[in-house]
Description:
- This protein is α/β, with parallel strands linked by helices.
- Among the domains are: 74-89 and 124-173 and 285-471 and 805-821, Glycogen Phosphorylase B (Rossmann fold, 3-Layer(aba) Sandwich); 476-699 and 760-798, Rossmann fold.
- Helix content is 49%, strand content 16%.
- A hairpin with a 2-residue loop joins strand 8 and strand 9.
- It binds ligand GL5.
- Ligand GL5 is lined by residues 129-132, 135, 280-281, 366-367, 442, 471, 659-663, 681.
- It catalyses: [(1->4)-alpha-D-glucosyl](n) + phosphate = [(1->4)-alpha-D-glucosyl](n-1) + alpha-D-glucose 1-phosphate.
- Allosteric enzyme that catalyzes the rate-limiting step in glycogen catabolism, the phosphorolytic cleavage of glycogen to produce glucose-1-phosphate, and plays a central role in maintaining cellular and organismal glucose homeostasis.
Amino acid sequence: MNDLSDKRTAAVHFEPDDQVDRLKSEILRKLTYSLGKAPAAAQAHDWLTAGILATRDHAIDVWQASTKESYATGRKRVYYLSLEFLIGRSLADTLNNLGLTEPMTRAMRELGVDLPEIETIEPDAALGNGGLGRLAACYMEAMASTGVPALGYGIRYDHGLFKQGIENGRQIERPEDWLSFRNPWEFERREASYRIGFGGSVAASGPDQVVWTPEETVFAVAYDTPVVGWRGRDSTTLRLWRARAMHPLSLDAFNKGDLVGAVAERNRAEAISKVLYPNDSTPAGQELRLRQEFFFTSASLQDLVHRHHRQFGSLDNLAEKAAIQLNDTHPSLAVAELMRLLLDEHKFNWEKAWEITNATISYTNHTLLPEALETWPVALVERLLPRHMQIIFGINARFLDAVRRRSPDADLASLSLIDEHHGRRVRMANLAFVGSHTVNGVSALHSNLMKETVFAQLHRAFPERITNVTNGITPRRWLLNANPGLTRLLQEVCGEAVADDIGLVRQFGAHADDRAVQERLAAIRRDNKLRLAKVIQQDCGVVVDPEVLFDVQIKRVHEYKRQLLNILETIALYNAIRSEPYRDWAPRVKVFAGKAASNYTTAKSIINLINDVAAVVNNDITTRDRLKVVFLPNYNVSLAELIIPAADLSEQISTAGMEASGTGNMKFALNGAITIGTLDGANIEIGERVGADNIVIFGLTADEVEIAKRNPRPSAEVIRATPHLEGVLDAVAGGAYSPGERDRYAQLVEGLRLNDWFLVLRDFESYHQAQRRVDALWADRARWWQMSVANTAHCAWFSADRAIGEYAERIWHVPAGQAARA
Ligand code: GL5
């Protein structure tokens, strides 16, 4: 072991009592000297901040050692550009990764503080909308855990994803305020600030020389947070940019009494990092969004180019030392910005600049939904980023020329970076594709569909470029921390080392029939359900029995995710229970949670319907013991950590071909929930691993969906052929669940009858039958626990460490740290 690794693991090697004493004095010092509070006067939030600051010191030791080592060895570094990082809380995870959970709990206890309780007042860092942002957070932790040197670049939004309230069954949005009491994890880096230009003009200043003179300039200031990996071996850095005005106040305007004008520039500049766009899988068309995209992309590239130049004195070897990963198309402008830096600031010629750009950048696609593929009007890009528009035209001309020469009959219109059909728009996905050496999808099905659909022409032009890396989740947060009961059982059965090598859970499979293991599992699940039941009672006012089946759908609310299918089937079940109350129904609670984009009317109407159905069902005494429906407000990472370990059934019911991968599906399966799902995204790979007997599959396949869309069956015919459906739709449309406003759902149902685009009606019967199979499985509890064991035992492959290993080896060409040091 060298000095560096000694230093890294120092925190873990103290004798337990010494360590507790040391932590106590560290906490007290922070309380006294950083917060100015005496222990007797300290409130819960003071203890939390003192605990975070004490923990952060340990993280810094690891962080500095990691940084020093990666500089000393000149290893290749990954730069992960993402407009979203959906982090959640950090204290429990950081303590766990540092091996400090036990001693910190004891230290706090001896100071009269309940650590798990104060952990719950840490605000969630909700700098993301859904899976894409959460994936970025998992990958930052997994890179730290597997020793891949990395910097994550994003925006430090003042306001993360809105807070969702439910009032009279409807979603209301309130601003989120995670920074209102400062963020104790971060460090402001004044020295790392860059000028970001917008607008202005471009002029030739010599042969091949161009000068861009922006009309407006804002500052991007860096805020760094360490992300510590498992056992505190390594740390990555999350570097988030905040926008600041060059001139915070116009004294001239102020002195003339123009108070608004005096801060106009400041407001315009700072708006860039003010708020996260609450859109999931749909582009926001606002100019501000494009400004955000360029702002963080340009700051990140200037930063990494500057660092590289300082370290190596030249940019010739950029691709050897830096891998830039674009998390979706939001940072696609990186292609043009890197070209600009190389051409205009570092005086490379076009060919060399292009070679470096292409060899450095790679791009992950996260959705094929046509409405989600980002495009920007050429006129807007030209006005805001004139030099970049020139460069994009330059890339396009050379690219189309090369294709034309190679294959004269290629479909240039669909290959072009410019869409000429809809008023000339820049296709950000094409820009990212052409500018990258590798493009990946996020599940096997999704990557294949990329080749066949949206990227079919580009795939023909670059047959080697598309590859697949199925998503992964960090087992530290989603198993070890979220489900300590199950973790303990796994450690007993598979050995303590499962925490280090999640692959060892495989051995759990051999115990699927062991009654004692099954009983332990049942007890663990029951405890988790009890914890969730308390929150349900608090937040929804509904009492649920932990003995019943917890049937859970938690995710963004979107038509393709088909919460509507779930709630319509719930109504059918409710009707069936009422008409045959003495049948042997599997008692269930249907748990929903999720946010809808604020401008997505249909999704909001679906939330309203779920709540209205809940109000009726939960007050009906005939179904009282057998069916409950709850919608937990304000879904976020912390709530997911509570819900997932308590789930018996995981609803992954998207229209096949529409969910790129899903990652919630992996979290549930690893925690032993049974999936009811379509053959979509990573559900397919979960099924392949756990085995067809241990998953409940229904519905049309992606191929069948394609055919069904080309030749849609009239809804009336589908409804006629589907038992129960007509009655359910009539009841909803007629106001049975909205007696105060009878036509509240008339449009929602009419929409389905007119165009069942997401095949809710088509898949209804298949889903209903699948749910009856679930009833039967639940009745045979030994079988259920067997399935649960199989799910946990075979889902280690969905670890983010495996996914990062694939990126490192096949895309970034960086050796993982442990291997490199061994
Ligand atoms: C998403 C996809 O919709 C998910 O299927 C996928 O698991 C996730 C991460 O790859 O990316 N795309 C997207 O825009 N959001 C997603 O969750 O928000």
